[in-house]
Design goal:
Structural class: alpha+beta
Radius of gyration: 17 Å
Number of helices: 7
Strand order of the largest sheet: 2-1-3-4
Oligomer: single chain
Strand content: 5-15%
CATH architecture of the largest domain: Up-down Bundle
């Protein structure tokens, strides 16, 4: 089994953290999907990372599919509750965090276009999604120690990766000031080895 990933992808970081927390040894192959020589399309027709290549040569893609597979691969440090309603709540957190990243990445890609061709309204709309998502994250977290209120789960990993991606790509977004509970939460997660060892570098 091996993981194909970009070191700056928040989705790939989520998978790498899950591997660390589950104590699953999995070699990492770094591949940038935007590069002309990228091999990612050979493993995922959508040309996206992360991709998990299984021992039989088959592949799994989309981080949510991969982390679900990994969480059931070993009982060590279960990250999604077995009870369905609680599991759905964890997945809801993950969907919100990933959705904020989706909007952020849309902005990053738009800003790569020549300035004259960039759509300012499109960028503003996506940044509006980021802001609305952050507001909901903060409101839902409130003063709890963990997203689901009981313990460390995939929800916390997804939110931590989301906030880390904003730090990486959007220095102009001051989310820590308006949302001190998210700032405190992110600082706590940063102390975990799985987060400390996967900090994205531009």
């Amino acid at each position: 089994m091996k993981l194909i990933a970009s070191l700056t992808s928040p989705y790939a970081r989520k998978v790498r953290i899950v591997l660390h927390e589950k104590r699953i040894d999995c070699p990492l192959t770094v591949d940038i999907p935007w590069n002309a020589d990228s091999q990612v399309p050979n493993f995922n027709p959508l040309g996206k990372v992360p991709v998990l290549v299984l021992d039989d040569g088959s592949t799994l893609f989309d981080s949510r599919v991969i982390v679900d597979y990994l969480d059931h691969l070993t009982p060590v440090s279960r990250l999604v509750p077995s009870e369905h309603r609680k599991a759905v709540q964890v997945k809801r957190w993950e969907a919100l965090a990933d959705g904020i990243c989706d909007a952020g990445i849309a902005v990053v890609l738009e800003r790569k276009r020549p300035a004259a061709k960039q759509d300012a309204d499109w960028i503003a709309r996506q940044l509006g999604k980021v802001e609305a998502g952050l507001k909901m994250l903060s409101e839902d977290l409130a003063e709890r120690s963990w997203c689901n209120g009981e313990g460390y789960t995939l929800a916390d990993i997804a939110v931590g990766c989301c906030l880390g991606y904003l730090d990486l790509r959007f220095a102009e977004i001051d989310w820590r000031g308006p949302y001190p509970n998210l700032a405190k939460f992110a600082d706590k997660l940063a102390q975990r080895p799985a987060f400390a060892e996967t900090v994205p570098q531009a």
